[in-house]
Give the backbone structure.
Amino acid sequence: MPVVKYPRAREALWCEWDRKAQKCGLRHTVYAVNGDRYTGEWLDNLKHGKGTQVWKHTGAIYSGDWKFGKRDGYGSYSIPDPVTKEYKRVYTGWWKNDKKCGYGMTFYPGGEHYEGEWSGGQRSGWGRMCYQDGSIYEGQWLEDQPGGLGMLRLPNENRYEGNWKDGKKHGPGKFFYLDKGQLFEGIWAADIPKCGILIDFGRDEAPAPTQYPIPKV
């Protein structure tokens, strides 16, 4: 009995190409049309898992966790120095939905840096900011500015402890003039003391005390 051989059905060429183009699991470097490149894990054609992204236009690098195409989890972001071309760390910490969220540290130009909590890409929660002039703010943040209870310590060790709003002293607070040995305690509004009382505080140990002590009422 003769055997009839039927030609094997061949997959359409476009189906084969499409199957090969699907990205899932660990992949070598994949280049985007604009020159950006990504090396790492994929899921359903989206960056998902561990991976490193390099942006061609800025030269910036992100290395860390991804979730459905967005930075999500723990990772670090660095940019090249325009002069030395060496990479400088900008942010190391937690991300959510492609924005800083959770605990992390950011390094600003001029040597300033912030360590603390983030939400939606803004400083929010508890954090410590070290400024270029040597001042340090430690306390609560809201919408990228000091907001709530916090302490600002100046380079000469004088400090303010109290309430903040929109990045300014606002509400009850104390200002310690340790260089003069005095303490002002009162109410502030938009960085301006409105009312309060000024008393001697550690005047005997102050490096530059006032000529006469404040008389007691």
Observations:
- Residues 24 and 44 are 6 Å apart (CA to CA).
- The longest helix spans residues 13-21.
- The radius of gyration is 29 Å.
